[in-house]
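Data deposition worksheet. Section B asks for the primary sequence of the deposited chain exactly as it was used as input, without tags or linkers unless they were present during the calculation. Section C holds the resulting structure in token form. Section D is free text for depositor observations; keep each observation to a single sentence. Incomplete worksheets are returned to the depositor.
Section A, Depositor: J.P.
Section B:
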Amino acid sequence: MQEVSVRQEKQGDAEAISLVNRSAFGGDEEAQLVAALRGSKSFIPELSLVAVVGERIAGHILLFRAQLERPTGQSVDILALAPMAVVPSQSHRGIGSTLIQEAATRARDLGYPAIVVIGHPDYYGRFDFTEAAVWGIGCSLPVPAKSITARELVPGVLAGGGQLRYPTEFNRLFKV
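Section C:
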């Protein structure tokens, strides 16, 4: 079995990343979201990571800027994770886990205080993500509250809660 390595997305990877997302999700929405985020001010090149098996991209994860608007009116820059994709033929090899762990490490090293994700709480709970409602965090997107999880990279940063504001690129995906 070939080894999996993780690296930052580089020029020329966009089509392979799009293919990974289309095959993982069975449609174009997530691939279009990645392309839209890549062209936005929320994009952080160092946090668009690919998993490589042999010489082929088999997975992708994207962390991008989002806002946590505090009840006090202050706003905190945090990260949101979306999407994370692995091609079906490479699933169950730990690629998703490797991508999440590497992305969190790099995010911490870059000084970001927290990561939020809308997804399966049981899955993300394995990586120290906790239901965001524990901190009093809500979301501007029409999603079930229990699907929103968060992970502090700086202890205590999420205390006091607030409202998550995702970039406008998400509006089309969630039909807002």
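Section D:
The radius of gyration is 16 Å.
The chain has a mean pLDDT of 95.
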